[in-house]
Amino acid sequence: MFKQFSFWILSALLMVSPAANAQKISFSDYRSKLLKERAGKDAEFLSQEDSPLSDEDRETFRGLAYFKPAKKWIINARLERFSKSDTIRMQTTTARLPLYIVFGKAHFEYKGRQFSLTVFQNVDLMKKPGYENYLFLPFTDRTSGEESYGGGRYLDLRCDDEETVTLDFNRAYNPYCVYNKRYSCPVPPSENFLDTGVKAGEMNFSH
User: Fold this and answer.
1) Quick check: 133 and 41 in contact, CB under 8 A?
2) Burial (CB count <10 Å: 0-12, 13-18, 19+), residue 42
3) Using CA atoms, how far apart are residues 127 and 159, in angstroms rounded to an integer?
4) Using CA atoms, how far apart are residues 205 and 52, in angstroms rounded to an integer?
């Protein structure tokens, strides 16, 4: 799993929250940074050393498909941190059952409707320097199985305070098992289904 924490995810995690930066940079500047990240990911996928793609898919790879970046999908959510967190073995696409802490819930409003998503911490990853505040949010939505991957997508978050967290769905990305079945990927829990179409972030991948 840790292989997936490469240049393009690290850069997203190390960035200042888009919501916190709203008064400092324009959406045009934000969009430029996002497109640069996406170009970096495409370059990594073309690399024989770093790519999760099979040799056959890499030969025909012309870049990943994304929904158009939209400001409405940068959402400031209220973070409910659980005072007593359970540790679970999360289901994956293989027999592997990694340990995750059930960190809390992100509550937000979209088009007048209230939504909640459970956020997690990977027990092994949080021991690594720089990842102490890393949160993991797997989810599915109304686009899953159509425009986006049926098995759901992921968001990487940083918990910089105890009350809010930025959900930037423009940075929603596919698990590596979309590209190659040799990877073991966490399966989003049923509670993290969003009853709306999240037309943001990475789209489905065609082999």
Assistant:
1) no
2) middle
3) 15
4) 12
Q: Is residue 203 part of a domain?
A: no
Q: How far is it, in rounded angstroms, from Cα 35 to Cα 132?
A: 27
User: What's the domain range around 94?
Assistant: 2-194
Whole-prediction pTM value?
0.89
For residues 199 and 195, give the distance between their C-alpha atoms in angstroms, rounded to a whole number. 12
Give pLDDT, residue 24. Answer: 67
Could you give phi then psi for residue 192, rounded to 5 degrees?
A: -100, 30
To 5 degrees, how large is the angle CA 33–CA 36–CA 38?
Answer: 115
**What is the per-residue pLDDT across 70-100, written as a single tens digit (0 to 9) for each?**
999 999 999 999 999 999 999 999 999 999 9
Residue 200 and residue 59: Cα distance in Å, rounded?
Answer: 27
Structure-token pair, residue 41:
């990911």
- In 3-state terms, what secondary structure has residue 89? strand
Cβ 193 vs Cβ 167: under 8 Å: no
pLDDT in tens, 163-182: 999 999 999 999 999 999 99
Q: Give the dihedral sign, CA 61/63/67/72.
A: positive
The answer to the question of residue 207 being in a domain is: no
pLDDT tens-digit readout, 117-138:
999 999 999 999 989 899 999 9
Q: Is residue 179 part of a domain?
A: yes
